[in-house]
Amino acid sequence: MASSNNKPRRWSPLTCLGTTNLSPSGLIQLESDAGEVETQCRTNCELRYEGSGPLPKPVDNSSGFTDFWTAIDVNLSCHVTTHRIVLVDEKESIAGSIPYPLVHTAEGKGGPSFRSPKASYKIELNTLAWGELLIVFRGGERHPYSQSGKDRDAALTAIHRAQKRKAWEDRERQAAKEAARPSQTITARKVGVDAIMTKNKLLLKENANLAETAFGGNNKTTKHVSKKKGNQEDIDAFMREATPLLKVIQKYTSTIERERRAAASSNNDAAKQHNDTEKLVAMLENMGMTSALSEKQSGSMYHKQLARQIVDFLRHNDKLTKAGGMMTLTDVYCLFNRARGTNMISPDDLLKALDLMKDLGLGMSRRSFQSSGVLVIQDDAFDDEVMAKKLADLASSSMKQKAEPIDDIGGITVIDVSRTLKIPALLANEQLQSAEQMGWLCRDSTIEGMRYFPNLFQAATSC
Fold this sequence. Notes:
Function: Component of the ESCRT-II complex (endosomal sorting complex required for transport II), which is required for multivesicular body (MVB) formation and sorting of endosomal cargo proteins into MVBs.
Low-confidence stretches: 213-217, 284-291
Number of helices: 17
Subcellular location: Cytoplasm; Endosome
Strand order of the largest sheet: 2-7-6-5-3-10-9-8
Mean pLDDT: 76
Organism: Skeletonema marinoi
Helix content: 40-55%
Main location: cytoplasm
Number of strands: 15
Number of domains: 4
GO molecular function: phosphatidylinositol-3-phosphate binding; ubiquitin binding
CATH topology of the largest domain: PH-domain like
CATH architecture of the largest domain: Roll
Shape: globular
């Protein structure tokens, strides 16, 4: 992926890797349809190529590189997923990936020794496309030597776990299994309504036979199915695939019950509960049931990643734009946690992530209204000046659309702004007061309520 500007890309190991797309906020784009899940994330890493000579430039974009070869990429973040290893240069907005099918071996190297007590911790990757690559860990943003060893071990464990599971083959196995089902092969020869009816009948029959045999059906059904080895193989495969899910459900149930009993008693073992919760989250991630990273897996990058996730979430389907460019922290907290599902964040994590948005240049930032103290997330494109002009135009149009001067005095209220901009009444009131303080509106307080009108003096000045 090319950098955000039009400068030539540097010729280095990172830019020679497989192309990886980034979201507008800088997060890697996971292959959700293939069930890809991010399991580890570490910062302050290096990518080295120690072979003889430079790596060849990618053929599709060989003209976009510089002429100078750099054998080391520094200040990278290393992301381990179930399908690949992704290295990201956040400053240049470029990323490259190493798919697991191209990794022959992954071994831990380096660490302290008698001659080198402060030797760096590394992961040596023997790849089929780029030869030997080294990922060096520098201990995150704080650079502690002890942390670099923990980061290396955590990343290496996640890589070995992903290589053992081979999640990238799940889609192919599922597609082959679905294609081999009788409901697919028979209905392939039919078209129209006949094909739909036949397929539904076969699906119902297959599911009924599978359930009856697996959970103890009548003798007639059992004898009939026992004569067909194909159905029995499907049943065995079904039970094998259901076993991990049943274990997860049983583990989840027992953990919840244990936590309830511990909460009822005074002598609870908090450390044991935390360990069980971590095991449960790891089991869910291994099965691809969650893609949200925990603080333990993200390390020092947790709140930065969280800030980018929140921005992408609010940018998706223009959630923030449709809400008038501003949302209260309560609304964002509820909507974002509902989207994350099993791995919810705390209010403190949300506040820390919002504090980083401005420094990261994500186009959103936290704002506090002085009059009421309400905290909101605001799109940088929807500043006070833009919103004040919009409210002034809305107030002017209300004056033009009035039918009878006696019956309708015009002006806008908090409810009018709330309905028009589709924002809460609390935010509508804050926006109106801000526009009034800036001189774009003036208000009229009566026994019927408060109405805001365009400031004619401001309009005359602007003219």
